[in-house]
Amino acid sequence: MADLDLTGIHSALPTPFNASGSEVDWASYDKLVDSQLKGRISGLVPCGTTGESPTLSESEQRELIARTVRAARGKAKVIAGTGSNDTKKAIDATRAAFDAGVDAAMIVMPYYSRPSQEGLLRHVTLIAQASPGPLVLYNIPARSSVELHVETLLRILDLCPNVVALKDASGGLMYCQELIARAADRITVLSGDDPLTLPMLSVGAKGVISVTSNVYPRAVAEVVEQAAAGKWSEAKATHRALFPVHRGLFLEPSPAPVKAALVNQGIFASASVRPPLVEASATCRGRLAELMAAYGTGA
Questions:
Q1: Active site residues
Q2: In order of start, what are the domains of the chain with their CATH numbers?
Protein backbone atom coordinates (compact mmCIF):
# COMPACT_ATOMS: atom_id res chain seq x y z
CA MET A 1 0.00 0.00 0.00
CA ALA A 2 2.98 2.27 0.40
CA ASP A 3 3.18 2.59 -3.38
CA LEU A 4 -0.18 4.43 -3.60
CA ASP A 5 0.73 7.91 -4.81
CA LEU A 6 -1.55 10.48 -3.19
CA THR A 7 0.51 13.53 -4.08
CA GLY A 8 -1.21 16.33 -5.98
CA ILE A 9 -4.62 17.96 -5.82
CA HIS A 10 -7.75 16.16 -4.68
CA SER A 11 -11.14 17.87 -4.75
CA ALA A 12 -13.40 17.58 -1.70
CA LEU A 13 -16.68 17.28 -3.59
CA PRO A 14 -19.84 18.96 -2.32
CA THR A 15 -23.06 16.98 -2.76
CA PRO A 16 -25.69 18.85 -4.81
CA PHE A 17 -29.31 18.53 -3.70
CA ASN A 18 -32.59 19.53 -5.28
CA ALA A 19 -34.13 22.83 -4.17
CA SER A 20 -35.79 21.28 -1.11
CA GLY A 21 -32.70 19.32 -0.15
CA SER A 22 -34.65 16.09 -0.09
CA GLU A 23 -32.79 14.33 -2.92
CA VAL A 24 -29.34 14.28 -4.47
CA ASP A 25 -29.22 16.12 -7.79
CA TRP A 26 -27.40 13.48 -9.80
CA ALA A 27 -27.22 15.52 -13.00
CA SER A 28 -25.41 18.34 -11.18
CA TYR A 29 -23.09 15.86 -9.46
CA ASP A 30 -22.12 14.29 -12.78
CA LYS A 31 -21.48 17.76 -14.17
CA LEU A 32 -19.21 18.59 -11.24
CA VAL A 33 -17.22 15.36 -11.55
CA ASP A 34 -16.83 15.91 -15.29
CA SER A 35 -15.53 19.45 -14.71
CA GLN A 36 -12.98 18.11 -12.23
CA LEU A 37 -11.73 15.42 -14.57
CA LYS A 38 -11.42 17.97 -17.37
CA GLY A 39 -9.37 20.07 -14.94
CA ARG A 40 -6.97 17.12 -14.63
CA ILE A 41 -7.08 16.89 -10.86
CA SER A 42 -5.29 14.00 -9.15
CA GLY A 43 -8.20 12.72 -7.12
CA LEU A 44 -11.85 13.04 -6.16
CA VAL A 45 -13.08 12.95 -2.56
CA PRO A 46 -16.81 12.16 -2.33
CA CYS A 47 -18.71 12.00 0.96
CA GLY A 48 -16.28 13.98 3.07
CA THR A 49 -17.56 16.69 5.37
CA THR A 50 -17.65 19.07 2.37
CA GLY A 51 -20.05 16.51 0.89
CA GLU A 52 -22.27 16.86 4.00
CA SER A 53 -21.61 13.25 4.95
CA PRO A 54 -23.38 13.46 8.34
CA THR A 55 -26.70 14.12 6.58
CA LEU A 56 -26.36 11.58 3.76
CA SER A 57 -28.28 8.34 3.94
CA GLU A 58 -26.33 5.11 3.62
CA SER A 59 -27.79 4.50 0.15
CA GLU A 60 -26.90 8.03 -0.98
CA GLN A 61 -23.35 7.64 0.27
CA ARG A 62 -22.89 4.33 -1.50
CA GLU A 63 -24.29 5.63 -4.79
CA LEU A 64 -22.16 8.78 -4.67
CA ILE A 65 -19.04 6.70 -4.17
CA ALA A 66 -19.92 4.12 -6.82
CA ARG A 67 -20.80 6.86 -9.31
CA THR A 68 -17.52 8.65 -8.66
CA VAL A 69 -15.50 5.46 -9.10
CA ARG A 70 -17.17 4.73 -12.44
CA ALA A 71 -16.51 8.24 -13.76
CA ALA A 72 -12.93 8.49 -12.47
CA ARG A 73 -11.63 5.08 -13.50
CA GLY A 74 -8.32 5.53 -15.28
CA LYS A 75 -8.47 9.32 -14.92
CA ALA A 76 -8.20 10.14 -11.22
CA LYS A 77 -8.00 8.43 -7.85
CA VAL A 78 -11.01 8.25 -5.55
CA ILE A 79 -10.63 8.81 -1.81
CA ALA A 80 -14.03 8.20 -0.20
CA GLY A 81 -15.00 9.82 3.07
CA THR A 82 -16.14 7.01 5.36
CA GLY A 83 -15.47 8.44 8.82
CA SER A 84 -17.95 8.63 11.66
CA ASN A 85 -18.01 9.05 15.42
CA ASP A 86 -19.36 5.49 15.49
CA THR A 87 -16.45 3.10 14.89
CA LYS A 88 -18.67 0.27 13.64
CA LYS A 89 -20.42 2.54 11.13
CA ALA A 90 -17.03 3.75 9.90
CA ILE A 91 -15.86 0.16 9.46
CA ASP A 92 -18.98 -0.79 7.51
CA ALA A 93 -18.79 2.31 5.31
CA THR A 94 -15.07 1.77 4.66
CA ARG A 95 -15.58 -1.83 3.60
CA ALA A 96 -18.45 -0.82 1.30
CA ALA A 97 -16.30 1.90 -0.28
CA PHE A 98 -13.52 -0.53 -1.10
CA ASP A 99 -16.08 -2.98 -2.46
CA ALA A 100 -17.10 -0.16 -4.83
CA GLY A 101 -13.52 0.21 -6.04
CA VAL A 102 -12.08 3.29 -4.28
CA ASP A 103 -8.34 3.80 -4.08
CA ALA A 104 -8.41 4.90 -0.44
CA ALA A 105 -10.81 5.84 2.34
CA MET A 106 -10.64 9.01 4.43
CA ILE A 107 -11.33 8.80 8.16
CA VAL A 108 -12.19 12.04 9.94
CA MET A 109 -11.42 12.10 13.65
CA PRO A 110 -14.63 11.27 15.54
CA TYR A 111 -16.62 14.41 16.24
CA TYR A 112 -18.73 15.23 19.33
CA SER A 113 -17.62 12.19 21.35
CA ARG A 114 -14.27 13.80 22.24
CA PRO A 115 -12.34 10.56 22.80
CA SER A 116 -8.98 10.52 24.51
CA GLN A 117 -5.80 9.87 22.54
CA GLU A 118 -6.14 6.20 23.50
CA GLY A 119 -9.69 6.31 22.16
CA LEU A 120 -8.50 7.81 18.88
CA LEU A 121 -5.79 5.17 18.64
CA ARG A 122 -8.33 2.41 19.18
CA HIS A 123 -10.84 3.95 16.75
CA VAL A 124 -8.33 4.23 13.92
CA THR A 125 -6.69 0.88 14.63
CA LEU A 126 -10.01 -0.99 14.56
CA ILE A 127 -10.94 0.64 11.24
CA ALA A 128 -7.50 0.00 9.76
CA GLN A 129 -7.53 -3.66 10.81
CA ALA A 130 -10.92 -4.12 9.15
CA SER A 131 -10.03 -2.15 6.02
CA PRO A 132 -8.93 -3.97 2.84
CA GLY A 133 -7.13 -0.89 1.53
CA PRO A 134 -5.21 2.29 2.39
CA LEU A 135 -6.53 4.98 4.71
CA VAL A 136 -6.13 8.77 4.81
CA LEU A 137 -6.68 10.21 8.29
CA TYR A 138 -8.31 13.63 8.63
CA ASN A 139 -7.26 15.86 11.52
CA ILE A 140 -9.56 18.89 11.87
CA PRO A 141 -9.81 19.86 15.54
CA ALA A 142 -11.87 23.00 14.86
CA ARG A 143 -14.76 20.82 13.69
CA SER A 144 -14.22 17.53 15.50
CA SER A 145 -13.31 19.13 18.87
CA VAL A 146 -10.43 16.68 19.24
CA GLU A 147 -6.90 16.70 17.83
CA LEU A 148 -4.98 13.62 16.80
CA HIS A 149 -1.62 14.27 18.46
CA VAL A 150 1.52 13.65 16.44
CA GLU A 151 2.69 11.14 19.05
CA THR A 152 -0.58 9.21 18.67
CA LEU A 153 -0.30 9.26 14.89
CA LEU A 154 3.23 7.86 15.09
CA ARG A 155 1.90 5.00 17.21
CA ILE A 156 -0.83 4.42 14.61
CA LEU A 157 1.79 4.23 11.86
CA ASP A 158 3.61 1.54 13.83
CA LEU A 159 0.39 -0.49 14.24
CA CYS A 160 -1.38 0.20 10.93
CA PRO A 161 0.72 -0.04 7.77
CA ASN A 162 -2.33 0.80 5.65
CA VAL A 163 -2.52 4.33 7.12
CA VAL A 164 -0.67 6.12 4.32
CA ALA A 165 -1.64 9.79 4.44
CA LEU A 166 -2.99 12.61 6.60
CA LYS A 167 -5.22 15.51 5.64
CA ASP A 168 -3.97 18.22 7.97
CA ALA A 169 -6.53 20.92 8.78
CA SER A 170 -5.01 21.79 12.15
CA GLY A 171 -5.00 25.45 11.15
CA GLY A 172 -1.28 26.16 11.13
CA LEU A 173 2.15 24.91 10.14
CA MET A 174 3.44 23.53 13.43
CA TYR A 175 1.60 20.19 13.23
CA CYS A 176 2.68 19.54 9.65
CA GLN A 177 6.31 20.38 10.40
CA GLU A 178 6.51 18.24 13.52
CA LEU A 179 4.88 15.27 11.80
CA ILE A 180 7.15 15.44 8.75
CA ALA A 181 10.23 15.85 10.94
CA ARG A 182 9.35 12.78 13.00
CA ALA A 183 7.63 10.52 10.44
CA ALA A 184 9.70 11.43 7.36
CA ASP A 185 8.48 9.43 4.37
CA ARG A 186 6.26 7.07 6.39
CA ILE A 187 3.21 9.20 5.60
CA THR A 188 2.06 11.64 2.91
CA VAL A 189 0.84 14.94 4.34
CA LEU A 190 -1.87 16.79 2.43
CA SER A 191 -3.09 20.29 3.21
CA GLY A 192 -6.69 20.40 4.37
CA ASP A 193 -6.88 24.18 4.36
CA ASP A 194 -6.71 25.96 0.98
CA PRO A 195 -5.12 29.23 2.19
CA LEU A 196 -2.30 27.23 3.83
CA THR A 197 -1.54 24.96 0.88
CA LEU A 198 1.53 26.79 -0.40
CA PRO A 199 3.06 27.32 3.06
CA MET A 200 2.50 23.63 3.83
CA LEU A 201 4.09 22.59 0.53
CA SER A 202 7.11 24.68 1.44
CA VAL A 203 7.72 22.58 4.57
CA GLY A 204 7.12 19.17 2.99
CA ALA A 205 3.42 18.54 2.35
CA LYS A 206 2.79 16.78 -0.96
CA GLY A 207 -0.56 18.20 -2.03
CA VAL A 208 -4.01 19.30 -0.95
CA ILE A 209 -7.54 18.06 -0.46
CA SER A 210 -9.17 21.24 -1.68
CA VAL A 211 -12.53 23.00 -1.65
CA THR A 212 -11.44 25.79 -4.01
CA SER A 213 -10.53 23.27 -6.70
CA ASN A 214 -14.23 22.55 -7.20
CA VAL A 215 -14.44 26.04 -8.69
CA TYR A 216 -10.94 26.46 -10.17
CA PRO A 217 -9.35 23.01 -10.53
CA ARG A 218 -6.52 23.96 -12.88
CA ALA A 219 -5.47 27.01 -10.90
CA VAL A 220 -5.24 25.07 -7.62
CA ALA A 221 -3.40 22.27 -9.41
CA GLU A 222 -0.91 24.77 -10.80
CA VAL A 223 0.12 25.86 -7.31
CA VAL A 224 0.99 22.27 -6.40
CA GLU A 225 2.64 21.55 -9.74
CA GLN A 226 4.72 24.73 -9.69
CA ALA A 227 5.87 24.08 -6.12
CA ALA A 228 6.76 20.46 -6.96
CA ALA A 229 8.87 21.74 -9.88
CA GLY A 230 10.68 24.21 -7.63
CA LYS A 231 9.05 27.18 -9.36
CA TRP A 232 8.33 28.97 -6.11
CA SER A 233 7.94 32.47 -7.57
CA GLU A 234 5.27 31.23 -9.98
CA ALA A 235 3.58 29.19 -7.26
CA LYS A 236 3.50 32.23 -4.98
CA ALA A 237 1.92 34.38 -7.70
CA THR A 238 -0.72 31.76 -8.48
CA HIS A 239 -1.47 31.27 -4.78
CA ARG A 240 -1.76 35.00 -4.13
CA ALA A 241 -4.23 35.41 -6.98
CA LEU A 242 -6.35 32.60 -5.54
CA PHE A 243 -6.11 33.72 -1.91
CA PRO A 244 -9.19 36.01 -1.92
CA VAL A 245 -11.22 33.17 -3.45
CA HIS A 246 -9.97 30.75 -0.77
CA ARG A 247 -11.14 33.16 1.91
CA GLY A 248 -14.42 33.87 0.16
CA LEU A 249 -15.36 30.20 0.04
CA PHE A 250 -15.30 30.15 3.84
CA LEU A 251 -17.14 33.40 4.54
CA GLU A 252 -19.93 31.24 5.94
CA PRO A 253 -20.03 27.59 7.08
CA SER A 254 -18.85 25.28 4.31
CA PRO A 255 -20.07 23.97 1.92
CA ALA A 256 -22.73 26.68 1.52
CA PRO A 257 -20.37 29.19 -0.17
CA VAL A 258 -18.80 26.70 -2.60
CA LYS A 259 -22.27 25.54 -3.61
CA ALA A 260 -23.23 29.15 -4.32
CA ALA A 261 -20.06 29.53 -6.41
CA LEU A 262 -20.90 26.40 -8.39
CA VAL A 263 -24.38 27.76 -9.09
CA ASN A 264 -22.68 30.95 -10.27
CA GLN A 265 -20.65 28.84 -12.71
CA GLY A 266 -23.70 26.93 -13.94
CA ILE A 267 -22.47 23.59 -12.60
CA PHE A 268 -25.03 23.21 -9.80
CA ALA A 269 -28.72 23.88 -10.34
CA SER A 270 -29.31 24.67 -6.67
CA ALA A 271 -27.19 25.85 -3.75
CA SER A 272 -29.35 24.05 -1.20
CA VAL A 273 -27.81 22.40 1.85
CA ARG A 274 -29.34 20.12 4.44
CA PRO A 275 -30.22 21.29 7.95
CA PRO A 276 -28.74 22.27 10.29
CA LEU A 277 -26.76 24.15 7.61
CA VAL A 278 -28.37 27.03 5.73
CA GLU A 279 -27.71 28.34 2.24
CA ALA A 280 -25.21 31.11 1.68
CA SER A 281 -26.68 34.51 2.47
CA ALA A 282 -27.29 37.16 -0.16
CA THR A 283 -24.31 39.07 1.22
CA CYS A 284 -22.06 36.02 0.88
CA ARG A 285 -23.33 35.27 -2.63
CA GLY A 286 -22.74 38.85 -3.69
CA ARG A 287 -19.22 38.90 -2.32
CA LEU A 288 -18.42 35.59 -4.01
CA ALA A 289 -19.69 36.89 -7.34
CA GLU A 290 -17.42 39.93 -6.96
CA LEU A 291 -14.40 37.79 -6.10
CA MET A 292 -15.01 35.40 -8.98
CA ALA A 293 -15.46 38.26 -11.43
CA ALA A 294 -12.24 39.85 -10.20
CA TYR A 295 -10.35 36.56 -10.43
CA GLY A 296 -11.70 35.72 -13.88
CA THR A 297 -12.73 32.43 -15.39
CA GLY A 298 -9.73 30.56 -14.02
CA ALA A 299 -8.97 27.17 -15.50
A1: 138, 167
A2: 8-230 (3.20.20.70)
